[in-house]
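Notes to self after the Tuesday call (sharing in case useful).
The group wants a holo model before anyone commits to mutagenesis around the pocket. I volunteered. Ligand is zinc ion. Logging inputs and output together so the record is complete.
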Amino acid sequence: MRLSVLPAFGDNYIWVLRDGGPALLVDPGDAAPVLAAAADDGLEPAAILLTHHHPDHCGGVPALLERWPALPVFAPDDARIDLDCERVGEGDTLRLLGHDARVMAVPGHTSSHVAYLVDDHVFCGDTLFSLGCGRMFEGTAAQMHDSLQRLAALPGHTQVCCGHEYTLANARFATEVEPGNAALAARLVEAMDQRAAGRPTLPSTMASERACNPFLRCDMPQVRAAAARQLGHAPADGVETFAALRGWKDVFRA
Ligand SMILES: [Zn+2]
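Result:
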């Protein structure tokens, strides 16, 4: 399948996945870029997949349903997504455009957040970012850590399709945590080149995230040591390491 992306707002990405015909749209927070692509490039949506209820991920759906009234919409079971849609949850498999789309519950950023695995693409919304992760608005550190661990267990070649372009800002924090990580240093150079050329830094690969993203590396000695410096004591486990990193990142200014 062919992956492309429509930028929206300041730093959101609407993902577009297709075989050549109609496309799956992930998290159309704004209808305008989709309508423009329909007019300019003949983009024709086949279905909408929503990862979570935040307006910058769902807000464009009503206008898209006005344009394409029969368009199926898939969303987590959350009353805050007030749309006529098919509700999905952990373990569901959808059959879309002849491909299986597996649903993973990944709570933490929000309580009902889901990710969609379509072939070797994972659409992870605001749970996993390149070199970072989402803020924990509704979940616990244990939930978010578990969600990230299950995403990290996907095959290394999995294309990581995140909801926002946050990679460079995340890289500054990741480098603070692991200044000696050579893979991270190389990824930062790559991301700077991509942004300088006006390109997205995404998708990333899960192998790259496992090598570079501190939030997926809570069991690494150097990441535990960085967390220990924040905590003032050695973290008991990966969850405490994760919680220390997340709290540190919340107040981090590069
Ligand atoms: Zn969000």
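Two things stood out.
The chain has one domain: 2-251.
The pocket of zinc ion is lined by residues 52, 54, 109, 126 (CB under 6 Å).
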